[in-house]
Design a protein that fits this description.
- α4 crosses α6 and α4 packs parallel to α8.
- This protein is mainly α.
- It is built from ten helices and no strands.
C-alpha cells in the first residue's frame, strides 16, 4: 500500500518526513532499535550509524522514547489502512473478523528499499517493544496529547466488526484490544518462550486458528 500517514505533531520537534536526514533518523533508528533493543539504543549510537551528530537528532525528537512512539504509532496507522483496504469488498461479518485476525498475525513481506520505514521492521518492533509506548509514568499526559489515537482507532475498528458479528456482545472493546495484544504477544512467546504457548515453533496458522477459536467462542457464547 502506497500511503502517506499524517503523524501527530506532538511526537516530534521537526517533521522528519520533510528532510532526507529526518527520514534516515526514523528509518535507521527503527532498524537499530530492533538490532540493539530499546534499552541499549541511544541517539549517540544512531548518530554514528547515519554519520550525523546527536544534536541533529535532538532537533527532530525530544528523546528516544518519542522516537519509539513515533515508530509504533506509524505502524498502528499503517495497519488500520491495511485493514480498511482488505475489508473493502468483504461484507460477511465473520469473514471480516477472520480477515482482521489474519492481518494481525501474519508477518509482512520485505518492504521496498525506497520505503524509509520498513513495514517488516516496524512489525518486529511491535512484537518486542510495543507495550513500552504506553507502559510509562507519562501515559496520562501522552494520552491527553492523543499520542495513542491510532492504536485506539484500530481497536475501535475491530470492536465495530465484533459488534457486526454479534450486536448483543457486551465487551467488544475489551475483546478487540485483547486480540490485538495477543496476536503479537503469542507470536513473541512462540519465538522466545514456547512453554507459554501450545506450539513448539513459530506457527502463524496455528495462532490464527487459536485467535479465531477464542474470538468466535466468546462472541457466539
Amino acid at each position: 500500500l502506497d500511503i502517506r500517514i499524517k503523524m501527530n505533531e506532538k511526537l516530534y520537534l521537526r517533521n522528519p518526513e520533510d528532510s532526507a536526514i529526518g527520514r534516515r533518523i526514523v528509518g535507521r533508528g527503527l532498524v537499530l532499535i530492533n538490532k540493539l533493543g530499546f534499552e541499549e539504543f541511544t541517539f549517540k549510537k544512531l548518530s554514528n550509524e547515519i554519520d550525523t551528530t546527536e544534536a541533529t537528532i535532538y532537533r527532530y525528537f525530544e528523546n528516544k522514547h518519542r522516537l519509539l512512539v513515533y515508530l509504533i504509532t506509524w505502524y498502528w496507522s499503517f495497519l488500520e489502512y491495511k485493514v480498511m483496504f482488505s475489508l473493502n469488498n468483504i461484507h460477511d461479518p465473520e469473514t471480516r473478523l477472520k480477515t482482521v485476525i489474519r492481518l494481525l498475525v501474519t508477518a509482512p513481506p520485505a518492504s521496498r528499499e525506497s520505503d524509509y520505514i520498513a513495514e517488516e521492521e516496524a512489525y518486529r518492533l511491535i512484537k518486542w517493544e510495543g507495550s513500552k509506548a504506553y507502559l510509562t509514568r507519562n501515559v496520562n499526559k501522552d494520552n491527553k496529547d492523543r499520542l495513542f489515537k491510532p492504536y485506539k482507532d484500530l481497536c475501535s475498528r475491530i470492536a465495530g466488526i465484533i459488534r457486526e458479528v454479534n450486536p448483543k456482545y457486551k465487551y467488544p472493546n475489551s475483546l478487540a484490544s485483547t486480540l490485538l495484544e495477543m496476536s503479537h504477544a503469542q507470536k513473541f512467546f512462540m519465538e522466545n518462550l514456547p512453554a507459554l504457548t501450545d506450539t513448539n515453533k513459530p506457527d502463524e496458522k496455528k495462532l490464527i486458528l487459536f485467535l479465531d477459536d477464542m474470538a468466535f467462542s466468546i462472541i457466539k457464547r
